[in-house]
Amino acid sequence: MKDLRDLTFICAYYLNRGMLLEQQRVWSAYPPELKTHFHAIVTDDLSPSGPAVDVFAPTGIASQRLYTALEHRRFDWLFCRNLGASVATTEWLLLTDIDHVLPAETLLTILTKKLHASNVYRFGRVDAHHGYPWAAGSLTEYKPHPNSWLLTKKMFDRIGGYDERFSGWYGSDSEFRERVHATADRVEMKEHWPLVRYPREIIPDASTTTYQRKTAADGENVPRIKAERAQIRDADGREAWKPLRLTIPYRLEATL
To answer: Whole domain around residue 142: which residue ranges?
Structure first.
């Protein structure tokens, strides 16, 4: 195939050994002509056991890098995504959670279809169930993921990336989404470009189970941080805050 663009897949890892193995199984199965244009960056949010490096293995894709955050915060996928976008070497980025797999058909579409750098793209989603690995006939439609994005590295920087003031608190993804809509020319929902979501019934560590997802503290602190941030003003009284990015140390763990 000619004129394929390159793409970097970016996700966070926290106690997701089985899900990373499944991601790598899918990457390994991509057709060779797609593998040469597909890159992956995974950041381990300092897993206390079963670190990603234990199962990080070559899959034959263009490049595969693993980073480790050297400080852990609850739900610190914001830092992990900021790091991936910062070190990515391709123009186009796909930011998602580790329990979302990019099937070959959707990858081919992303690599070949016309995309506009001034736009940001979202995905439809299907649910993998009643089988491992998922197979034809085992997928059902699922609501689109509100925090999976296809965009250029320049657009990510224009938006400002994720604001790590919100690290540690659940439910802050809407803040980034608001800035996406305020910055991009268009936000396009591609319902027929699905990601495959893995529930815990198939892979028990597909998503984080060690934290309660929504607590009273989350409901209090996310709006509190927004209000405090809005008070950061310049000399003329205009809002002067910028998203905080890459606020903790990290190391490159492996390059394959």
So the answer is: 7-255
